[in-house]
Amino acid sequence: MASRNKAARKTASRKASNKRSNKASGKTSNKTSKKTRSGVATVAPQSDAARIIAAIKKIPRGKVCTYGNVADVAGLPRRARLVGTVLRQTPASRGLPWFRVINASGRISFPLGSDAYARQRKHLEAEGIDFVGGRVDLDRYGWPPRAKLLDELLWGPV
DNA sequence: GATTTGGCCGGGC
DNA sequence: AGCCCGGCCAAAT
């Protein structure tokens, strides 16, 4: 069964992001920067949640972004699930365009038929996003645009 | 498309 | 610590 490249998959395919960079050591809990040892105040690293929120805010009207891409934009590759978790526990009161986040299949992640599903879909359609067979065409509405993703991966942020 | 399989990570117990 | 479960992902069947 050719079960060879398993570990290779993520690493190689999903963005040659070798940028697992910093953290990587499991927990990151960057709470508010504390280590102000003697004065050298390290610039408070934003919490992962804050970065995710910020990334979501960038999604333009009429566009959608997958959990994975939100994570990438937030500088947290491979933390798609965290995006879901953060979203789940973030009060919509924040004026956050949470509804622009959908899964990599171009579908709304809530169970079809649920209120949540209907709510999200309504928001998206209100922005002109069109659903075909319950799916959003990511080539058309996805953000950031694929080309851009690729470029940044290969060339780095301009 | 649908499923399976393996991987990733954070949170809760 | 260990185990299990997520608004996940992607390659392979």
From TrEMBL:
<dbReference type="InterPro" id="IPR036388">
    <property type="entry name" value="WH-like_DNA-bd_sf"/>
</dbReference>
<dbReference type="InterPro" id="IPR036217">
    <property type="entry name" value="MethylDNA_cys_MeTrfase_DNAb"/>
</dbReference>
<dbReference type="InterPro" id="IPR014048">
    <property type="entry name" value="MethylDNA_cys_MeTrfase_DNA-bd"/>
</dbReference>
<dbReference type="InterPro" id="IPR052520">
    <property type="entry name" value="ATL_DNA_repair"/>
</dbReference>
<protein>
    <submittedName>
        <fullName>MGMT family protein</fullName>
    </submittedName>
</protein>
<feature type="domain" description="Methylated-DNA-[protein]-cysteine S-methyltransferase DNA binding">
    <location>
        <begin position="50"/>
        <end position="129"/>
    </location>
</feature>
<feature type="compositionally biased region" description="Basic residues">
    <location>
        <begin position="1"/>
        <end position="22"/>
    </location>
</feature>
<feature type="region of interest" description="Disordered">
    <location>
        <begin position="1"/>
        <end position="43"/>
    </location>
</feature>
<keyword id="KW-0227">DNA damage</keyword>
<dbReference type="Pfam" id="PF01035">
    <property type="entry name" value="DNA_binding_1"/>
</dbReference>
